[in-house]
Design brief:
405 residues, alpha+beta, 60% helix, rod-shaped
């Protein structure tokens, strides 16, 4: 479950983390630029590289070394300043080709700069592509004036090669953006689902306990006039119900805060605490019979909580719509399923939440409708409705997921 403090924590550490990631990327790019610059002076690699013009070859000089360095070393900033990196590398490559120096491995820096601009440039992408294309056209004209034997087809083929590296970078950028969008949508969906689950939890806790307290308070008020000596028992029941409500609300707040001890699992409602629900209903004046069949085994938290909420919601409806009528709670512990049946004997009006089982509640669903969704989350099934022989029944079947020690 996502903590509401998580955004604050992420904001606190985001700046240092982003700075560290940026420095790490700069370091890696710096190593790449340095290695490429050194490889440019390895004789066996001199035949590998980008070359256009086929002008008469000039001997190496300090200027050729400087231009080679200018084609490689700017790659250290290829992610931080992709446009600047491309501008320096492209200008150095153009000058190197126009002066007729021998091909070097360092000329591959132009290809990497084009890829980096396509992958990392954020603003003025079309403008940058236009400037680079115009610059290449000027280089082709200059090479032609200097006596290059290459024709239009050769220059066009080289231009298309350069365009491929830009497009590969653009494709990587697009996929990266799509992946970020998918992660953002997944986070939003998870957050919405968690909010809905918390709303359902709050509904179950508040509705059940408040209903019990209202019934108990009404009973105590009646006893004040008819049997004052028993009124204290009713008031004590109201007090105990309030404490249980506070305990469960603290548990929910602990889960929201996700701070370890405050979200301790021993506060979570479990099958072992169904007796407390039954006793609470009895103290509210509801005659409840409770029985279990089979061997109870510790289940996963989601199964325990779903089963607990089924009984809680069913008893809440019984107290609201069949107050004072006999209610039976049966829990069957099987090897593969947990079966829950809660029935009332008196023919009663179908609870207002029950029709939502047949038609989705446009407001999002609460009560039995929300309970049905909860049971489905653990691959279970919930049925609720009037019985043919009279009364009302809630029947849930939940797959068993025993906790292995």
């Amino acid at each position: 479950m996502m903590s509401p403090q998580a955004p604050r924590i992420r904001a606190l550490f985001r700046a240092p983390l982003e700075w560290w990631e940026e420095q790490d990327a700069f370091l890696k790019d710096g190593v790449l630029a340095l290695v490429l610059a050194l490889l440019a002076f390895v004789p066996t690699l001199s035949t590998i590289g980008a070359q256009i013009g086929d002008l008469p070859e000039r001997p190496a000089s300090a200027l050729s070394v400087a231009l080679t360095a200018a084609q490689t070393l700017p790659l250290a900033a290829r992610r931080r300043w992709p446009a600047g990196c491309l501008a320096v590398a492209a200008a150095a490559f153009a000058a190197y080709q126009a002066l007729g120096f021998a091909t070097t491995f360092g000329s591959l820096g132009l290809y990497l700069a084009l890829y980096s601009a396509g992958a990392h440039q954020v603003r003025f992408r079309r403008g940058l592509a236009g400037v680079v294309s115009a610059g290449y056209a000027v280089l082709a004209l200059v090479l032609d004036r200097l006596g290059s034997p290459l024709g239009i087809a050769d220059h066009l083929a080289f231009y298309l090669t350069l365009a491929v590296f830009w497009m590969v970078g653009s494709t990587v950028r697009t996929r990266r953006a799509e992946e970020a969008q998918r992660r953002r949508l997944a986070t939003e969906l998870a957050t919405a689902a968690e909010r809905a689950r918390i709303a359902s939890e709050l509904h179950d806790v508040v509705t059940h306990h408040v209903t019990a307290m209202v019934v108990q308070a009404d009973a105590a008020q009646f006893l004040l006039t008819s049997a004052p000596d028993k009124a204290s028992e009713g008031l004590s029941a109201v007090s105990d119900t309030g404490r249980r409500a506070l305990t469960e609300l603290r548990y929910l707040l602990g889960v929201l805060e996700a701070t370890g001890e405050s979200a301790s699992a021993d506060r979570a409602p479990t099958l072992g605490r169904l007796g407390d629900l039954v006793e609470q209903a009895r103290r509210s004046g509801q005659p409840v019979e409770f029985s279990e069949q089979g061997e109870r085994r510790a289940q996963s938290v989601d199964v325990e909580l779903a089963a607990y909420r089924v009984v809680q919601e069913a008893l809440t409806n019984a107290m609201k719509y069949a107050a004072g009528q006999k209610t039976q709670v049966l829990i069957g512990h099987g090897e593969k399923h947990i079966e829950i049946k809660v029935t009332t004997d008196r023919p009663s009006t179908v609870p207002a939440a029950a029709p939502a089982l047949r038609k989705p509640d446009p407001a999002g669903g609460r009560g039995l409708a929300g309970l049905r969704a909860r049971v489905r989350m653990v691959n279970g099934e919930l049925k609720a409705g009037p019985r043919t022989e009279g009364g009302f029944e809630v029947h849930a079947t939940i797959p068993s997921k025993p906790v292995t020690e």
